[in-house]
Amino acid sequence: MRIARFSIDGNVAFGVVEGDESVPDGLVLDIIKGIPFAEYERSGTKVPLSKVRLLPPVLPSKVVAIGRNYAEHAAELGNEVPEVPVAFFKPSTSVIGPGDPIVYPSFSQEVHHEAELAVVIGRMCREVPRERVAEVVLGYTCANDVTARDAQKAEKQWARAKGFDSSCPIGPWIETGLDLAAANDLAVTATVNGDLRQSGRTSQMIRSIEDLIVHITEAMTLLPGDVVLTGTPAGVGPLHVGDEVAVSIEGIGTLTNKVIKRD
């Protein structure tokens, strides 16, 4: 099931995405009563997807991201594979949705795309045993860990390089129908202006989704709607003002954003 968050006529709601996306205007939203983190029911009221504005599928209290989780990506930037997962935060203010602009930060001259599988947490959890990870996952979505690479190289902390406003596009919706085995072997691609830049599979991750959730929740509580970014495959590269970047993940969908100059 695909669950989207959207706005229409000034109102914000969640809905289940239905229909055939290969047909023009073939997708509709069945508005749900409630929220996807608790019991809800479909209202039966349906609106065409083309008539709404898709929003970030969740508003996370935090985004916990994992760096260098693909060996080829670590190598392309001249880094060793870390002995333990490298975790960092992207603030809630960095999150944008499908179609929202990535605003090129004034302090950087080298902004890169990083296509990633995002895990959406469905319930409050801490110290999750490996065998219970599936119980805390609501679903999965596409993410772009947009990075000011020059700032990342120059500064010991990655807060500005990874956390600037609009640096965390996620969407277009949450796919809840994937089990862990499937999510650990999905194709991940990124295109810029239609040209393929990144192509990999989540099976290439050094540490699996289970490994990451166990590792993160040893230290902190994850809340419903929090997001875990699982790392990016090789092929990261520059974005420029005017570029359109699209992250696609097998079985989930495509997240598209355009890069603009700050006013």
UniProtKB/TrEMBL annotation:
Gene3D superfamilies: FAH, Fumarylacetoacetase-like, C-terminal domain. One of its GO terms (biological process) is carboxylic acid metabolic process. GO terms for molecular function: acetylpyruvate hydrolase activity; isomerase activity; metal ion binding. InterPro entries: Fumarylacetoacetase-like_C (IPR011234), Fumarylacetoacetase_C_sf (IPR036663), Rv2993c-like_N (IPR018833). This is 2-keto-4-pentenoate hydratase/2-oxohepta-3-ene-1,7-dioic acid hydratase (Catechol pathway). Residues 1-57 form the Rv2993c-like N-terminal domain. Keywords: Metal-binding. Residues 62-259 form the Fumarylacetoacetase-like C-terminal domain. It comes from the Bacteria.
